[in-house]
Amino acid sequence: MAFDYFLYKGVKFSPGSYSEELLNSVENEFQVLDDDVYIVTYPKSGTNWLIEILSLIKKDADPNWVNSVVIWLRSPWIETKEGQQQIKDVSRPRVLTSHLPFHIFPKSFFTSKAKIIYVMRNPKDIFVSLFFFAKIICHYKDPESFEQYLEDFLQGNILYNSWFDHVKGWMQMKDNSNFFIVTYEELHQDLRGCITRICKFIGKELDDAKIDLIAKHSSFEVMKENKMSNYSLGTKEFIDHTKGSFMRKGKRLLNGGCPIFLIILICNRKLSAAAYSEQLDFSHLALLPCTGAPHLRSRLAILCVSGTARAQCTLGSC
C-alpha cells in the first residue's frame, strides 16, 4: 500500500499506527513511572532481543511468560496507537519500548527516576537488516532498490529519520546514572556478561543459574522458534508474511576485515563506494562513547572505502 510519511517535529512517521495527535500526547502527557524501564533503540538495533532478555529478568528467569504472551504485549511501544492501549494492562515494574528520538521522548521521563537501556548497533549492519525489514513491514515504504535505499538511509529519508541523529541525540544522556548503553555486538560477544550488567543497572539480583537460564532462553535460536517472540503471529496489517520472516539471521555482517560498504560494490560495480561514504557526516561519531570500549572503536569506526574496494579503518581494526 502506497503512503507518504508525515512529520512530527521533523521526524518521519507513517500513517496508521502513528498520528501527530498521539505523538504530541506521548511527548507532553504520557506519565512515566519511577520504576519504569525503557528499551530505546534505532530500528534494527536489537530491540526484540532486549525485550526478551528483560522479560526473562522480570520473571526471574521463568520462561513461561515469554512462551505464552506475545512480545509486543510484554513490552508495548509507547508511540503507537496499539501500544498505548496495551500499556494499560502491563504490570509494574513496566518494561516499555520506543524508537523515539531524544527530543520528542516523553518529557515526564526527565523528571523521573525511570531508566533507559539504549541499544546501539553498527549502522552498516542496521542498513542491510533494515533494507530487508522494510520489504515486509507494512508501515515502512518498500525500498525501490538497494542503491536508492542506501541513499535514503544516509539522508535520513526513512521512518524515524537518520541513525546518526538518533544516536547523537541520545548520547546527551550518556553520563546520566539512569541511562545504560549496550551494543548489539556486545550481546553477541558476551550475552551472559551483558545480562549480568543489565540486572545490576535495574537493581535486580539473580543468581548464576538464573543468569544462565536467561542467556539460554534469549538466544537467537530459541527466539526464532518461539512463536510468541518471532512475530509469526503478527497480523497482516503489520507484516506481510509472504515476503519474508521477521527474524532472519540475527548475525553481525562485519567479521574479519570485510566492511559492509563493500556490498555497494558487489551490488552495483559501476558505483564508487566513496561516492556514498563522502555523504556521511562522520563528525557525529565523535560523540559516541568510544574511549575504553574496543568494540565501539572498531564496530562504529569510520570506514573510508575507495573505488578500488580497499578499506582502512581510522579508529581501529575491523
UniProtKB/TrEMBL annotation:
One of its GO terms (molecular function) is sulfotransferase activity. Residues 34-251 form the Sulfotransferase domain. It is an enzyme of class 2 (transferase). The gene is sult2a1. This is Sulfotransferase. It holds the Pfam family Sulfotransfer_1. Belongs to the sulfotransferase 1 family. Keywords: Cytoplasm, Transferase. It comes from Xenopus tropicalis. Its main location: cytoplasm. It is found in: Cytoplasm.
